Amino acid sequence: MSFQNPVFIPGPTNIPESLRKACDMPTIDHRSPLFGQILHPARAGVREILKSDSAEVFIFPSTGTGGWETALTNTLSAGDKVLTARNGMFSHRWIDMCQRHGLNVEIVETPWGDGLPADRYEEILAADKNHEIKAVLATHNETATGVKSDIAAVRRALTAAQHPALLFVDGVSSIASMDFRFDEWGVDVAVTGSQKGFMLPAGLAIVGFSQKAMEATKTGTLPRTFFDVRDMTKGYANNAYPYTPAVGLMNGLNQACSMLLSEGLENVFARHHRIAEGVRAAVGAWGLELCASSPAVYSDTVSAIRTPNGFNATDIVTHAAEKYGVAFGVGLGEVAGKVFRIGHLGSLTDVMALSGIATAEMCMVDLGLNIDLGSGVAAAQEYYRGHPGCVQKNAA
What we know:
The protein has 13 helices and 13 strands. The chain is α/β, with parallel strands linked by helices. It has 2 domains: 17-262, Aspartate Aminotransferase, domain 2, CATH 3.40.640; 265-386, Aspartate Aminotransferase, domain 1, CATH 3.90.1150. α1 packs antiparallel against α9 (247-263), α10 (265-286) runs parallel beside α12 and α11 (314-324) packs across α12.
């Protein structure tokens, strides 16, 4: 693998030089007011990126998985019932975590490639007359299949059923890359991490809690220590953590938020959509299909590309790494060996995306697939030429 080539995995993503430098800082006293000058602007920046006026933002030394655990353990009790769908590897992993914590999980099995079945959620919630369901879990962007789901539709299902359940959203591979509306969608806990849209190394779990979720922390009885938001709230009031924070990463997060907000959130989302459309144009030119079942659920951060029956898609990923020093994503779970994934999020441009498309083409031709060399590149070029983006001196 070459450190000179960009990566095309759906996270961790490419890190801009300015963010690497922001993370590389001298040691400071993390219990001094100086740390507060990093902590509080970073939390405010995340809140703005979530499109929220009131979310309580917590930043833990962890990953998105720690964010999931934060959502569950701070608000729920053993035996509580939660509703979710299994439509990919990451929704599956959240289900597994719920079950390990002794929660009663009602699972709506959903084809891998489809979005969340909001209509089925509404039926189940409406039938839950005693309001036994305490939370609804929703994966906004299923990284394994390249599928986004309509979180606003999930909220409408809760509203239509007049159900008081909390709404937890996994936005690990969507927040800071795709439009996310914490307040408008009535999200109660949003979960993400530092290594995707925020373009930083892995190491931070970033969560937003609504006031309703904060109230639930008073009654939830699942064990929590490291991820206790009550302890974190007390620490924040004194410019500190209940333990040692990842100061360099926090400084990087502060800078990442400034970078994204300087570009403009709508411009960030448009950039991701444009790059994704170029990748999708290439896939069509290759005569291949996406795992995502329809354009309505196409992800703007990762494309999972189906290869012909009998062909091991993982060979493309292995070959790209060994021959060309380029990283793509393998298929996971039910789609392992059936798809390879091109991540197109974070610090990426049209020109960088073209290099990934060209490499994927070379690998497929090398491995004997019936692909015309240059076809996908040409299709993406035509799209990018016809849909130019704004070039910024400090663009992510």
